[in-house]
């Protein structure tokens, strides 16, 4: 077990299976020392955990938890091409999309769920640049979608 996966276990989490693509893309691709993930939805056991707009059907607190699930799915995607999460030198960038009710403006707080998970699991290597974007709708009516870019040790 890698040190990163041991840290996940310490937090009561396990790395899930990679979520199969919903369309014509790969869950993650490697280019040199970088891994780019596709947008990860809050899928649990192959199913979308919750649907709806944040600030309407989904509370910001629920959405923050769903962003954690997205980040965990992104780590699984990274491992699928890197082989070992201990090879992660740092998370470079996180982009979070929040399907938002028209008057919802708390996207950064929602995407904090992903950012905080990455920092908990990877320590300083998990601190990153980030964008949090409100959108009208996401695939399958998901409330949140997160993609990450990581640099691997050479």
From TrEMBL:
| InterPro entries to which the protein is assigned, alphabetical | Endoribo_LPSP/chorism_mut-like, RutC-like_sf
Where is each Endoribonuclease L-PSP/chorismate mutase-like domain found? 5-148
**SUPFAM superfamilies in alphabetical order:** YjgF-like
CDD domains for this protein: YjgF_YER057c_UK114_like_1
One Pfam entry name:
YjgF_endoribonc
PANTHER family the record matches: ENDORIBONUCLEASE L-PSP_CHORISMATE MUTASE-LIKE DOMAIN-CONTAINING PROTEIN, ENDORIBONUCLEASE-RELATED
Protein name, as recorded: RidA family protein
Species whose genome carries this gene: Streptomyces kebangsaanensis
Supply the source organism's classification.
Bacteria, Bacillati, Actinomycetota, Actinomycetes, Kitasatosporales
């Amino acid at each position: 077990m890698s040190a990163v996966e041991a840290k996940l276990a310490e937090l009561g989490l396990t790395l899930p299976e990679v979520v199969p693509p919903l369309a014509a893309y790969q869950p993650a691709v490697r280019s040199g020392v970088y891994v780019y993930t596709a947008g990860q939805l809050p899928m649990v056991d192959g199913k979308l955990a919750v649907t709806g707009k944040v600030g309407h059907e989904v509370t910001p607190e629920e959405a923050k938890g769903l962003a954690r699930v997205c980040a965990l799915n992104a780590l699984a995607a990274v491992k699928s091409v890197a082989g070992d999460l201990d090879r992660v030198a740092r998370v470079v960038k996180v982009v979070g999309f929040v399907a938002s009710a028209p008057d919802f403006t708390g996207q950064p707080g929602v995407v904090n769920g992903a950012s905080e998970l990455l920092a908990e699991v990877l320590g300083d290597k998990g601190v990153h640049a980030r964008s949090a974007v409100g959108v009208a709708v996401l695939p399958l009516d998901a409330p949140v979608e997160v993609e990450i870019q990581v640099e691997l040790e050479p």
